[in-house]
Amino acid sequence: MRKMFAAALALGVSLASSAYAVDGAPIDVNVNMARVLRISGAAATVIVGNPGIADVTIQDPQTLILTGKSYGQTNLIVLDSAGNPVADTLIEVVQMQAGAVTVYQGQARTSLACAPVCQSVVMMGDDTAFSSEAIASAQMIQTLGN
């Protein structure tokens, strides 16, 4: 564990959970989910190689919020106020695995999150009609809640 922590500090990035980026391994985040990243120095600028895959915001100088937007791999560079690199690492946006169920009806694919009750979720590659209905339903619920 010490070796993993030392490698994470060398990268300048550690995760709020027990996982660390080690030996150049990418930091994983689920699509449509966020993850807290803690960095060793104060961040002034964050650069994401492909903002269509992931987004990073500065919560405070040593806390970043990483959000998976689309499947794929990109890089994250964090600079301090003098323009010096604090972190430079790979980000990999992956599909949620735990509790996710994919249903195929012919060529139409739908996704469900089943933990413990199955509910529709929108995943890239799902049937367009299914996705539209799931989004409309979520928007209606949000409108009623306001």
Task: Please describe what this structure looks like.
- With 146 residues, this protein is of the alpha+beta class.
- It folds into 2 domains: 2-94, Immunoglobulin-like, CATH 2.60.40.1080; 100-145, no CATH class.
- Helix content is 19%, strand content 45%.
- The protein contains 2 helices and 11 strands; from the N terminus they run αβββββββββββα.
- The protein has helices at 2-11, 128-145, and strands at 13-15, 27-30, 34-39, 45-48, 54-60, 63-68, 72-79, 85-94, 100-105, 108-114, 118-121.
- A 4-stranded antiparallel beta sheet has the order 1-3-6-5.
- β5 (54-60) and β6 form a beta hairpin.
- The longest helix has 18 residues, at 128-145.
- The radius of gyration is 18 Å and the shape is elongated.
- Residues 1-22 have low confidence and may be disordered.
Gist of the model:
The protein has 146 residues and is α+β, with helices and mostly antiparallel strands.
**Oligomeric state of the chains?**
single chain
Number of helices: 2
Task: Give the terminus-to-terminus CA distance.
Answer: 46 Å
CATH architecture of the largest domain: Sandwich
Count the beta strands: 11
Q: Spell out the helices and strands N to C.
A: HEEEEEEEEEEEH
The structural domain count equals: 2
The unreliable regions are 1-22
CATH topology descriptor of the largest domain: Immunoglobulin-like
